[in-house]
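Re-running the complex after MR caught last week's input typo. The corrected sequence lines follow. Everything else is unchanged.
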Amino acid sequence: MLSRGILRAAINGARHSGAARAAPFPAVSGKAQCASSTISIDGRRCISMYGYTQAKALVYSKYGEPKDVLNLHKHSISAPHGTQVNLRLLAAPMNPADVNQIQGVYPSKPPFETSLGTVEPSAVGGNEGAFEVISTGAGVKNLSKGDWVIMKRTGLGTWRTHAQLDESQLIRIENKEGLTPLQIGTVSVNPVTAYRMIRDFCDWDWMRAGEEWMIQNGANSGVGRAAIQLGREWGIKTLNVVRQRKTPEETEALKQELKELGATVVVTEEEMLTGSFRDMVKEVTRQGREPIRLALNCVGGKNATALAKTLSPDSHMVTYGAMSKQPVALPSGLLIFKNLVFDGFWVSRWGDKNPQLKENTIKDVLQLIRTGRFKDIPVDNVEWNWKSEGPQLAENVQGTLGGYRSGKGVFTFTGGDE
Ligand SMILES: NC(=O)c1ccc[n+]([C@@H]2O[C@H](COP(=O)([O-])OP(=O)(O)OC[C@H]3O[C@@H](n4cnc5c(N)ncnc54)[C@H](OP(=O)(O)O)[C@@H]3O)[C@@H](O)[C@H]2O)c1
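Corrected-run output:
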């Protein structure tokens, strides 16, 4: 178990964009399982007679709704040269930011390029995922066939059956034993976001483990579930706000599920917005003797205001999402009399500035997963094989922002490679 001390030590211890170059092989769009110039082995592998790997990628060449702008593009990838590495997708999630990026409303916009042989300059969707190394160029030093890797940075495009990247763009997963593609493919965005927000914005009193609190909305999200488990691990109590379900039984089941992950208290947004919430907070925090020192906000609007009002003087609220699309409005008194500090966090920019710390954070979370102390998020698995059609895959992406989902959409590639 990682003690607060060990984690504190870990904390203190703290390019290259490019899609795969398309091979000089005609890029074709089509539904056929393998191109006529390729051999299908066992219906799994598609290898061209010239040694090219056949690949498909979900690309977009203009901004809009995923169902309208995503296309499945078929192309070929050459054998890797120098420090290049050829990869096969294992699992890649569909996160809210991925959809915002395709809609053109996200601040980071991958460049539209023709490197995959698309007719229009395009970008590949997706920002995180687990890949398996299928071949390496002669100059590759630290990766071998069979290794599992993730991309160092967001914005490189992960919704693709195969990719060719430079070794320098990849993080090798050391000791993949005991880990699944889902766990590795979803570790670099949400758990890292939760981890850094809890660690970097609040000077926790490590002598008071179990006597300090954080509050968060969107507690059922991937980030929220990670925050609950990290809080439990680090002795920070959590007050968690979720949206009410259709029936009281469903709401209770959700509360129970989060409590099993380690949530101290779970309330609905509706409960938080009633007059009695203040008294309830006083009661659980022993009349404020156990301070609420951090709020994590991914919703905005009234919900965020209510969150801020629970904070003890000199505390921080970190905003990292805006699921309700409502602005954050704050009573001036919270700034003047309570000296609250309002921050924002964006893991993409943080990760680009702190690559080594990001890698260390990922390692810490993977260690918690290996030892069974960090549970998987609920998943809506979307199998992607050679027969998968573009519109069907795009429809799954479209559902990402729907809310009240039973699990996060995750592409799992079950086709073969070579
Ligand atoms: N800033 C960063 O670096 C960073 C990094 C990662 C994620 N994020 C943001 O964090 C948020 C959660 O991402 P995720 O991948 O963890 O989410 P997720 O697992 O895909 O779940 C989405 C969450 O959003 C909630 N939600 C959806 N619509 C809502 C609304 N109108 N009002 C309140 N809640 C709503 C859902 O609540 P229900 O369960 O009730 O449907 C669910 O808990 C997103 O805003 C995402 O963009 C930011």
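None of the earlier attempt is carried over here. The pocket of NAP is lined by residues 95-97, 189-190, 193, 218, 220-223, 242-243, 298-299, 320-321, 323-324, 345-347, 403-405, 408 (CB under 6 Å). The CA atoms of residues 35 and 48 lie 8 Å apart.
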